[in-house]
Write a structure and sequence with these properties.
Creatine Amidinohydrolase; 6 helices; 15 strands; about 30% helix; binds 2-amino-4-trifluoromethylsulfanyl-butyric acid; binds cobalt (II) ion
């Protein structure tokens, strides 16, 4: 399958899907408290998504049981919400959420520190987010896809972190996963040329220790855990490639107003 270029109409719908998802993330982030089960987080997210007349794209995707993924500490991604998994003070909690709005999808992840987290954890979260913005600096028409991969990976590795290699970002549109695959580390090839109208989900997953992950630790067929048990952080947005700076479709108005994008990704 080739990388699709979205029409004006499709881009409008992707933007709407993005704004809704940003709001869900914001509300859910505020609701996150020690003592909550990951099942409660899932239920809350499911209700919010449906209140916007959207569907949670993860629910039933390849049999995935939850509406969102909740991954704590050394869990990298795809944590399945359960009633007996309780969020504690000092945990770092990655929330990965996708919505379908009028047939179009958005996908975004945030990692939150709950209560008092260590300085190591705080820095990991901050630098994972920054690695995304380093990638954005080269995410415009004329650049090649794997320049994004290299910018993300080189930045994260400069701190000695492990960049997860077994999972990648992706194109997105009427399907959650479309071409191309977007690794978060330096590649030998340049990859395809970026063109205005491509919509991509860019999602660095960064471990404080080794880049290696394990898929069979929990035996649930989903959870991915860092191989050395080190903390892991995830940050993802759905973006639109343009001839200039990319548009981030999954930021809240507040995040834009507070200058997050400009601050972390200064205008070229
Ligand atoms: N948002 C994730 C991704 O980008 C995870 C989806 S996995 C699911 O691939 F099964 F939960 F949907
Ligand atoms: Co994704």
């Amino acid at each position: 399958m080739a990388i699709t270029i979205k029409s004006e109409r499709e881009i409008e719908l992707m933007k709407e899907a993005g704004v809704i998802l940003a709001k869900v993330h914001q509300e859910l982030g505020h609701a996150l408290k020690p003592g909550m089960s990951t099942w409660e987080v899932d239920k809350l997210a499911d209700e919010m998504i449906r209140s916007y007349n959207c569907l949670p794209s993860f629910k039933g995707y390849n049999g995935y049981p939850g509406s969102v993924c909740v991954s704590i500490n050394e869990e990298v991604v795809h944590g399945i919400p359960t009633k007996d998994r309780i969020i504690k003070d000092g945990d770092i909690v990655s929330l990965d959420i996708g919505v379908i709005h009028k047939g179009y999808q958005s996908d975004a992840a945030r990692t939150h520190g709950v209560g008092n987290i260590t300085e190591e954890a705080r820095l990991l979260i901050e630098r994972t987010r920054q690695s995304f913005f380093e990638g954005l600096k080269v995410a415009s028409e004329g650049h090649h896809l794997f320049e994004i991969s290299a910018a993300i990976g080189d930045y994260a590795e400069s701190f000695g972190y492990g960049v997860v290699r077994d999972l990648v970002g992706h194109g997105i549109g009427t399907n959650m996963h479309e071409d191309p695959q977007i690794p978060n580390f330096r590649q030998l090839l340049r990859g395809p040329k970026l063109r205005a109208g491509m919509t991509l989900a860019i999602e660095p997953m960064i471990n404080a220790g080794t880049w290696e992950v394990e898929f069979d630790t929990y035996g649930d067929g989903w959870s991915v855990v860092s191989a050395d048990g080190s903390l892991s952080s995830h940050y993802e947005n759905t973006i639109l490639i343009t001839t200039g700076r990319p548009e981030i479709l999954t930021l809240t108005e507040e995040e834009i107003a507070e200058g997050l994008y400009d601050r972390l990704c200064p205008i070229k």
